[in-house]
Every structure is written in C-alpha cells, then in structure tokens.
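Internal tracking record. Fields below are filled automatically when a chain is submitted to the structure queue. Please do not edit lines marked as system-generated. If the sequence contains nonstandard residues, flag them in the REMARKS field before resubmitting.
Queue: standard
Priority: normal
Entity type: single polypeptide chain
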Amino acid sequence: MSDQRPRVLVLGGKVTSQHPVTQVLGQFCDVEQFERMEDAMAALRQREFHAVFADMGDFLPLERGLVNQQSSMILNTIGEGVCIVDSEGICTWSNNRMRSFPPAVFERVKLICAQARSIFANQMSPTQEKGATRSKKHTFQAEDDRYFEMITSPVIDEKGDVRQVVAVVWDATSGKRLQQKLNAIDSAGRELAKLEGEAIGKLTPGQRLQLLQDKIIKYSKDLMHFDHFAIRLVDKRTNRLELVISEGLPPEALDIDLYVQPEGNGISGYVAATGRSYICHDTEKDPRYVLGIHHCKSSLTVPLRLHDKVVGVFNIESADIGTFDEDDRQFAEIFGQYVAMALNILDLLVVERYTTTGQLASSVVQEMAQPLNDIITEAQTLMEEYIGDDSMRDRLNRIVTHVTSIRTGLKDVAAGPQRILGSEHVKKQTDPLLGGKRILIADDEPNIRKTLAEILGKFGAVCTVCKDGHEAVIQIEQADFDLVISDIKMPHRTGYDIFAAAKRRSERVPVILMTGFGYDPHHSIVRASQQGLSTVIFKPFKTEQLLEEVRKALNPPPGQPATQPVKSPQGT
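SYSTEM-GENERATED OUTPUT FOLLOWS
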C-alpha cells in the first residue's frame, strides 16, 4: 500500500534534472520533488520524510537551514528571553520570549549587554584558550517592581575579539520575593529567640509571655499575613492541645477541647498526632475541620517541633477558599520552628541567676541542639532546591549563620538547683504576720518542701507539706489555709490546678507559685495571673525574697483585699 512506502524528498538540481531520479525512486518510494529550497524546508517542517535526495552543493545549505530552523524553534519555545547584541548595542536577533518583555526591560538588557561587551573585551587575554568564554550574571529591577536576572556571554571571533554578546534573561520576581520573605522570616525568628536573661528578669511571668505573644502576633500579621491563628502546645500529662496564643478567633473556637489524636480532634489533633502539615482548601468539604473563625473557608496547620517530637501546632485560618499554598506551608513550618524554639527557651531560661548557679546544664544544651539542627537542615534542603541561584543560597546561608549564633546564646540557659539560698542562716524568731498562719507547701522535691517548712516554721507559721499535686488538692479541699505555696511542675496536678482548688475553697486565699523557669509547660502562670495569682518566685531564690513575697501575700497593699485569718484546726 502507498502509505506503507517510504517517503522521500527530492530537491531539484543538476543531477536530478539530468537523470530520472524521481522516476527511479518512485518505483519504491513516495516521492515529493521541490525546485526551491524554501519549499523543501517548509515541507520538512510540516511532515516526516524517511530520506532526502539532493545535489552535494545543495545538501549542506539544506542541512544548515534545518539546523537553524530547529535552533530557532527551540529558542522560541524555552521560557527565558534570548537575544544577541552587536558591538553597536543593536539587537541583531531575539526570541519570542525576549520580545514579549516590556520595551523598557528590552532596552535595559541591551544596555547591560553593551557594558558587558566592554568588560569582556578588557578581560580578554592574548593567551586565553581559543573558544573559552566568560559569563557574567546581572540582576536589575524594572519600574513595575519586577525583578529580572540575566547571564551575558561573549561571542569571540577567530582573532579573539569580542564581536557580540549573547544574553539569556528571565523574570526572577517570584524568586526575589521568596528571598525577601526567607530573609524576613530569619530576622523575625532571631527576634523571637532573642530572650536575654537580664531583660526577661525585669518582667513578671505574665509580661514575659506577653512579650513573646506580642512578637509572634506582630510577625504573623506583618510578615506571614496571618490574621487569624492559634498556637496550642501539648500538655504531656493529659495529651491535650492547650491554647497558648490566639488572634482573631472567636471564644467558641478557643474553648474546644482538642487532643493529640489523628481522628475526632480536628485538623490540629491530626497534625499533632502525625507530625504532618495540613492544608485545608475548603472547610465545608473537609471532614477533619471542626470550628474556627466565623465563615472560615480554608486553613493551614503546621506542627511545632523540638528535636524529634511535636510539642504543639500553629493553626492559621482564612475567610477565603484556597488561600494557602505550598509556599505558605513552607514559610509557616520554618516560622513555626522559631516559635517552638522561642517558647522552649522561655521554658528553660533561668530568670534569676546567682554565682553559685551560673553553670550551664548539659541537658539543656542537648535539648536545644536538635531543634537548631532541624532549622539548619531545613535551610540546607532549600539550598539544594536552589542550586545555581547564588543570591538565594546566600540568604539561606545567613539563616544557618544566625542559628549558629543562637547556639552561643544557650550559655544563659540552665536549670536551677533544688535548694533555697541562705536558708542555713535563718534563726527562730517572732513574726506578727507569719505567727500562727496556716501555710500549705506543695513541691515534689523533698529538699524544697522541707526547707520551706523549716524557714517559715522558725517564724511561727504552721506548715502542711504535700509531695505532689493530688495530695495538695485533697488537703485544700479538706482544710482552710491562710496561704498556699506550690511548685508549678509536679506529678498528678499542675500549679494552676492547685491555684484553682484554693480559689474554689476561698476567693481570698493568696497563692504563690514557684518555678525555676520563666515559662511553664502547662501555662499555669499566665492562667492564674489573670485570676488573681499573688506572685511567682523563681528557683533558685533567696530566703529574704521568699519572706518578702510571703509577707506581701499575707498583708497586701492598700486597695487589695486582705487575707481573712482562718482558725487552725487540731493537728498538723
């Protein structure tokens, strides 16, 4: 059949005019003969031929024409603009993409090419190897705030002179903006992590968390453009996702109890359980979505990580469908790592340090090493994705450098010793404020609760000691106390649980919480401070400080309700 025979193109010439080439080939092939090279090349562009027959003198021009045609087709297909600029600064050829750029951009490209030609000419060495070229990278900003990058390369003739410059140009706006955002995230992350001991030491516990909360809200809004979000941390004791910071969410969304479970606890529970970020493009169609802002249409939830564990979630919501994409996820994950690290630094930072307790605890260093490594790993992964983009890689290298500097700041992080400074110098004496007062002391450290009872007992107080939170709550429910002093982190109950139990018993009973850290994992300080907590003292503390805070709690300043004395029941 005809369509099974080879198709041959014959270009008319001297040989074909003197010999019956077409007739001979026609016996075995389907032959198409053309007298003009332009027609032959057009046919080659439109359909496939198995062979081409032409005179020797015509074949080479035909081959070159086809190569040039294919090269032009390739250059017109690629996404970058390509042009050739001569010694006069005139563009002698450009592809379709180059011609699609605004005229001002095209003129800027030609100007850079002319400048590059001058530089190439001055750099050419008489001993330079033939065919060797030197390329240069250029970046410029257009009037419409778009960024362009280009590479110029010299075209060198047989004499070694630079005759033309070839430029490859592309729109780098998205990459540039990504650089700027990564740089901003790095800067914001360093600000979050900049929690120096002396500055923090001048603030109350509530002020410390408020400082961090204000920073997180500011950067989430200004940098990430997240207007509605919540940060929840995992309560290790109950596995509950406890709300720490929120912005723009209604009370009913904040009151929902969520736990670290992949099912039945919303998207936040799923992310905390699996450690995988989750983009909800349409809340009405996603069965995992629970409740957020009014008329919420989409959400983004990323895990907060410290070393290999998920310590919480960062949940962002939007009133529009499909607001969040993979770039948002990537940015939120990097920002979330800084948030988790800042929260953890607050949790581990000893606020009051004395010369006897100024050494760095190795366990703290180990705990912080892994999250810092995670940030470096994230940055290095991004660097691999941007091989060849030196500007982006420089930005990512800066993140690595800054994280390294944060490591240096860990010298201020340490755990306080479990003792009260100066307790050995306290002598028995009469004190009208403390004499006969019933004081409950709860701490899981035997030395702390014993020393506290001995100090206050020397001033005439009647102390009841409890070894854990459960025992303390039972004592509070069964008896009245003039003052409750409790550690924040104890087995079975948190400091807030004890505070709440004391307030249920009597609104007037003062409560003092103790901790060695500026921020507690169960957020007892902030929650209790909002409901009338007397004060917080930080371990290691001096005996004089303890007595001063106890006296203030038992005898508050004018304008605050005085503690009602209670009768001491029989027994201890």
